[in-house]
Amino acid sequence: MEKLQFIISKIGRGVAWLVLAMVLLIFLVVVQRYVFNAGSIALQESVTYLHALVFMLAAAWTLSEDGHVRVDIFYRDASVRRKAWVDLLGSLVFLLPFAVFILLGSWDYVGASWAVHEGSREAGGLPLVWVLKSLIPLFAVLLILQGLLLVLSSLTQIRRSVA
Q: What is the pLDDT at residue 163?
């Protein structure tokens, strides 16, 4: 359990550095366009790719760090036991079914992209759309793993509060 949490944390912290690369690339695109009156579709698409990498690969880590958005009207003043119940039920009713749906729903979509090694529709774009789409099931798997860790953690907290 701790090793899996360590891996998810390392992935999240690693891809978080891509935000800096994204900012630098956006700056480069802006300078290219407005100073040199030039542009690069591949460079612009690389920003989109980095954004997708950050969002999809850091989502599970964000969940583990309790950095996701939630409606805190009931949660913020709740006891540790009640928070554990909310996390447990939220994971079982919302998070895990959503992640499984994304995983199963993306399988054929990603497979079709792999079959043709799908590339950009834009001339001069990146030829790696099939790799980008592969992030979708990976996103789902990481969320499922983190959701299971959250379920186990919630059950442990509930058991401790009873004893």
A: 64
CA angle in degrees (0–180, nearest 5) for 148-150-152: 70
Answer for the pair 21, 47: CB distance below 8 angstroms, yes or no: no
Closest CA to 146 of 25, 7, 31, 28: 7
Measured CA to CA, the distance from residue 5 to residue 25 in angstroms comes to 31
Q: CA 118, 122, 127: angle at the middle one, nearest 5? A: 35
4-8, 76-80, 145-149: which has the minimum mean pLDDT? 76-80
Predicted confidence (pLDDT) per residue in 83-127, tens digit:
899 899 999 999 999 999 999 999 999 999 999 999 988 888 889
Q: Are 151 and 69 in contact (CB under 8 A)?
A: no
**pTM for the full predicted model:** 0.88
Radius of gyration of the chain (CA): 20
Contact 58, 138 (CB under 8 A): no
Write down the domain spans for the chain.
2-162
